[in-house]
Inverse folding.
């Protein structure tokens, strides 16, 4: 099956869609930004801010063949650090608490591949459905699938490209709210280049006044009734050659979309050069999140909560989990930074288990993995060798991990009789210049939150 992949941008004029078929280009910054960050499990608008109190679902068309990249593998399935691009896009939506479900529309021949991706990376809100021969046919299939699922039929449907992984939750919120109020909403960006029309002989016909036009981007949002009725009424020509969903809502439902200025991060992975840019940005985002493993201890959970608040101001996202088993095993494939919290005993076995799990996946061959081991001790006097934590054993463990491109750091925290905290920091490997900054961030937070603490450093 051959699926049409739409041009990266569409033209909008004065809050209305310009239906003339002129091509244009948007600005594509060399450094467009990183994934949005927030406290794990909480919307940026909850609590204390406006909330989304109606069901919202997402349709991700992912049936493109990648003709413009010149690669055999469609770009949505190209791997970045061992993980396909579409998985990053899905994760960006899964982290938004008020989004109830995600439908990914793929070519029939890629259904098994997409199902494997959903299972391997343990995406929870996602199901895959077969696409059609064109973009609009695929999106239509996705919209119809939302009515067939077990979940409540959504009030608002957000449509987004599978190859735009850098989507901002704040923009999604604005799109969802505007779509509910207006019936349709879409992101736009300023035009950078002047748009011209040519004659059939290849001469200049006329140019458009750039200030009056905008580039139509993704995401776009619609009430379910509007987008469903638009596809019910649209023509075969629309299905075959159209690319603009907002135009269908205007033409067939009389719904004039609210247009919302989007950030520069809305660019789309379209050409081969974009793959390298996307990989660079994805690597940068690795330093902005971590997984805290508490072992279920109440003290460890309390510490993790405090750390979560401390790093929140630094735009670092923490997911706190009791272990890396069962459903939580997916973090071994998704996360690159881990904090293992151990309590009141020699718990080298706990960090050893984490290292073993990470080594077995061979992910560190692609990019350094970081493990920070936090050992909580109730001893009155804190030392690296106290409470059975032997420096030799720790350093041997760190040296072996370093050979696997896993960087191990340690923090030892003690509680004295007067309940004041003491801290000893033992850096178990030297931090190379290209290491993710997550280690510096968390070590800073611990040091900043434990005042007047003795600090011991050991370098291997």
């Amino acid at each position: 099956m051959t699926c049409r992949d739409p041009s990266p941008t569409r033209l909008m004029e004065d809050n209305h869609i310009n239906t003339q078929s002129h091509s244009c280009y948007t600005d594509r910054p060399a450094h467009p930004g990183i994934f949005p960050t927030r406290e794990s499990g909480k919307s940026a608008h909850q609590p204390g801010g406006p909330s989304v109190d109606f069901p919202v679902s997402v349709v991700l068309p992912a049936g493109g063949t990648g003709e413009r990249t010149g690669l055999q593998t469609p770009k949505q399935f190209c791997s970045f650090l061992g993980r396909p691009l579409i998985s990053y896009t899905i994760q960006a939506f899964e982290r938004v608490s008020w989004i109830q479900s995600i439908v990914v529309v793929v070519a029939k021949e890629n259904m098994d591949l997409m199902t494997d991706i959903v299972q391997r990376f343990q995406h929870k809100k996602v199901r895959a459905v077969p696409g059609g021969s064109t973009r609009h046919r695929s999106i239509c299939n996705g919209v119809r699938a939302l009515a067939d699922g077990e979940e409540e039929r959504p009030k608002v449907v957000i449509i987004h490209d599978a190859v735009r992984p850098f989507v901002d939750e704040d923009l999604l919120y604005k799109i969802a709210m505007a779509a509910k109020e207006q019936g349709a909403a879409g992101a736009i960006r300023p035009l950078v280049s002047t748009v011209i029309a040519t004659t059939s002989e290849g001469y200049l016909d006329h140019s458009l006044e750039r200030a009056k036009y905008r580039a139509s981007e993704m995401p776009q949002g619609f009430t379910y009734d509007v987008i469903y009725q638009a596809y019910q009424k649209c023509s075969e020509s629309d299905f075959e050659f159209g690319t603009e969903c907002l135009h269908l809502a205007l033409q067939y439902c009389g719904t004039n979309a609210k247009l919302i200025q989007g950030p520069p991060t809305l660019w789309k992975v379209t050409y081969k050069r974009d793959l390298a840019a996307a990989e660079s940005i994805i690597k940068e985002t690795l330093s902005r999140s971590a997984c805290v493993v508490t072992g279920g201890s109440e003290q460890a959970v309390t510490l993790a909560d405090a750390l979560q608040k401390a790093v929140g101001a630094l735009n670092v996202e923490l997911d706190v989990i009791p272990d890396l088993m069962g459903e939580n095993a997916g973090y071994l494939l998704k996360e690159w930074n881990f904090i293992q919290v151990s309590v009141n005993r020699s718990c080298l076995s706990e960090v050893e288990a984490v290292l073993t799990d990470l080594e077995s996946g061979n992910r560190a061959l692609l990019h350094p993995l970081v493990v920070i081991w936090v050992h909580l001790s109730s001893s009155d006097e804190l030392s690296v060798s106290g409470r059975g934590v032997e420096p030799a054993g720790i350093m041997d463990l760190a040296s072996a991990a370093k050979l696997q491109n896993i960087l191990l750091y340690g923090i030892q925290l003690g509680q004295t009789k007067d309940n004041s905290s003491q801290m000893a920091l033992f850096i178990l490997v030297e931090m190379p210049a290209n290491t993710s900054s997550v280690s510096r961030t968390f070590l800073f937070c611990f040091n900043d939150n434990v005042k007047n603490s003795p600090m011991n450093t050991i370098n291997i």
User: Anything to note?
Assistant: The mean pLDDT is 76. Residues 286-449 form a domain with the Rossmann fold fold (CATH 3.40.50.360). The two ends are 56 Å apart (CA to CA). Residues 184 and 257 are 5 Å apart (CA to CA).
